[in-house]
């Protein structure tokens, strides 16, 4: 008996000793934060029912490095160290990785990637809404190769649909929502021989889409030049003319459609005057070309709204449809900042998109709205060095290279920041890196920096968001969105799992009726 008591006491002493050994660990704030997160994940219940709306955010060119650097920039802008922060989508419960390559290119372009994540079909570089059987720039080859975007399928099913982009609305990503062409560059005109073969430019396809299908309810972005003839002066820049060679004024054509409760607008003043409760169709082109970078945006009445403001207005208009809605929001100029070798511009655009996502978070119900945040592809920007925490994200590291020079935290593999390889790498100072026009250094000097071919992250919350887990082809991205809206590409014009937004799926209704039937007779 005494021996048993002794053994028990020994185990108690060992337990106390072990508890003392781990006390420092379990009381550490990082450890307790991990426990809190574990509890949240254990208590989390995925939403396995259809919703009534989907919002897809595309950070054009938003690589994982871009997300990390933007998170740090946002924090440092707000007077913090930055590393510990979160962008507005980083708390979403589900994440995955999408493989971005085009069928014919290891490193993709935005037309091929948009066709993948909007239509569910991978295709070749430069193709918009058509399969790889179409040959780029060859009109006859595109016949019979059209694939349809989730926006088109949602519109056919009676949902309201919208697109917001800081790029031209005829640019690759927004174009895939409504257009089909074997050449992404045919934004405002096609060669004469191509026109005779039946191909139509993207801007004209948008007008036709509005005329033939009832159209996109909200279209906000840039790109007036492809809707105006070469003889027509721009409303904002009188010295600039349109780019259309066919003499058409597509802005007038849109107005003549006489869509119910419709407005065409081109500046912030008109944008602010739009009453979303009395608007069914809103067409806004706020720039001659792409919209301005956020750092250059004119915030006055004659300027242009932010991506967050456009997102808010779009949701206000679209959510009035009891059947639901689909909205795509593209931060197109993240990509352009990277192409120019300007990490500053790219990260400011990323944080502006985070503001837009925050708007969507606050305006939607996670039980009804699937929100997906992803990128079409990445860029060659890298983040390295052994600098201390809180070091300015655009600045120099604490390290020296083998020649005794400091180097940048953010660099590009290629781009305009390259230098003459016959000369030493230019010496930099932190003061130089504070200039908004400063370009990050690059290994290979190019006129424009390129995309990269790495996977991109997909973040999701809401109905069927749990399906975004693992690593998959980019063409999978659309599938959970279609599931959340009960859309079936084989049955356009129908919602296959519910009669109306918020309704009960037929299978679920049958199960419910049978359960009530059994319960009734058990209690009879």
Considering the chains and any ligands shown, give keywords for the structure.
disordered C terminus, GPI-anchor, Alkaline Phosphatase, subunit A, 524 residues, Alkaline phosphatase, 15% strand, 16 helices, 2 domains, three-stranded mixed sheet, alpha/beta, ten-stranded mixed sheet
Structural class: alpha/beta
Indicate the multimeric state.
single chain
In one word, what is the shape? globular
- Roughly how many Å is the radius of gyration? 26 Å
Q: Which bin fits the share of residues in helices? A: 25-40%
Largest sheet: 10 strands, mixed
CATH superfamily of the largest domain: Alkaline Phosphatase, subunit A
End-to-end Cα distance = 62 Å
* CATH architecture tag of the largest domain: 3-Layer(aba) Sandwich
CATH topology of the largest domain: Alkaline Phosphatase, subunit A
The pLDDT mean sits at 92
For the largest beta sheet, what order do the strands appear in spatially? 5-6-4-3-7-1-8-14-2-15
Strand content: 5-15%
Uncertain stretches: 499-524
Q: What is the CATH class name of the largest domain?
A: Alpha Beta
Any idea how many domains?
Answer: 2
Number of alpha- plus pi-helical segments: 16
Number of strands: 15
């Amino acid at each position: 008996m005494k021996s048993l008591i002794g053994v028990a006491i020994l185990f108690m002493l060992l337990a106390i000793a072990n508890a003392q050994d781990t006390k420092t660990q379990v009381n550490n704030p990082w450890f307790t934060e991990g426990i809190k997160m574990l509890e949240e994940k254990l208590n989390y219940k995925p939403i396995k029912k259809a919703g009534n709306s989907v919002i897809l955010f595309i950070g054009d060119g938003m690589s994982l490095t871009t997300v990390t650097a933007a998170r740090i920039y946002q924090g440092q802008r707000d007077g913090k160290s930055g590393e510990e922060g979160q962008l507005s989508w980083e708390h979403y419960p589900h994440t995955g990785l999408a493989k971005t390559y085009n069928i014919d290119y290891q490193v993709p372009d935005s037309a091929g990637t948009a066709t993948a994540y909007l239509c569910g079909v991978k295709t070749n570089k430069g193709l918009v809404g058509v399969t790889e059987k179409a040959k780029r720039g060859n009109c006859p080859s595109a016949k019979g190769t059209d694939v349809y975007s989730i926006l088109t399928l949602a519109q056919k099913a009676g949902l309201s649909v919208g697109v917001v982009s800081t790029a031209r609305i005829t640019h690759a990503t927004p174009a895939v929502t409504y257009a089909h062409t074997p050449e992404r560059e045919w934004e405002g005109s096609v060669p004469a021989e191509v026109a005779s073969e039946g191909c139509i430019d993207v801007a004209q396809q948008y007008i036709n889409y509005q005329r033939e299908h009832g159209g996109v309810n909200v279209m906000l972005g840039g790109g007036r030049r492809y809707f105006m003839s070469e003889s027509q002066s721009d409303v904002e820049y009188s010295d600039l003319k349109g780019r259309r060679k066919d003499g058409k004024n597509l802005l007038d054509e849109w107005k003549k459609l006489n869509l119910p409760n419709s407005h065409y607008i081109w500046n912030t003043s008109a944008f602010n005057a739009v009453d979303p409760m009395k608007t069914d169709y809103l067409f806004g082109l706020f720039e001659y070309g792409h919209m301005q970078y956020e750092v250059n945006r004119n915030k006055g009445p004659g300027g242009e709204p932010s991506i967050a403001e456009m997102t808010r207005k779009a949701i206000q208009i679209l959510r009035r449809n009891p059947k639901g809605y689909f909205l795509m929001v593209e931060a197109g100029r993240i990509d352009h900042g990277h192409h120019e070798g300007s990490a500053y511009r790219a990260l400011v655009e990323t944080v502006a998109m985070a503001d837009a996502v925050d708007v969507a978070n606050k305006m939607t119900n996670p039980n009804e709205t699937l929100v997906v945040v992803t990128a079409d592809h990445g860029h060659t920007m890298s983040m390295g060095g052994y600098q201390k925490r809180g070091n300015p994200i655009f600045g120099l590291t604490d390290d020296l290279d083998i020649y005794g020079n400091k180097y940048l935290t953010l660099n590009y593999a290629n781009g305009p920041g390259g230098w003459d390889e016959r000369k030493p790498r230019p010496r930099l100072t932190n003061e130089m890196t504070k200039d908004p026009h400063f370009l990050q250094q690059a290994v290979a000097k190019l006129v424009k920096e390129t995309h990269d071919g790495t996977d991109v992250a997909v973040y999701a919350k809401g109905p069927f968001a749990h399906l975004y887990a693992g690593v998959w082809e980019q063409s999978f991205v659309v599938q959970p969105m279609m599931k959340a809206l009960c859309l079936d590409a084989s049955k356009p014009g129908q919602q296959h799992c519910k009669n109306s937004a918020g309704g009960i799926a037929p299978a679920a209704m049958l199960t419910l009726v049978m359960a009530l039937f059994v319960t009734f007779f058990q209690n009879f």
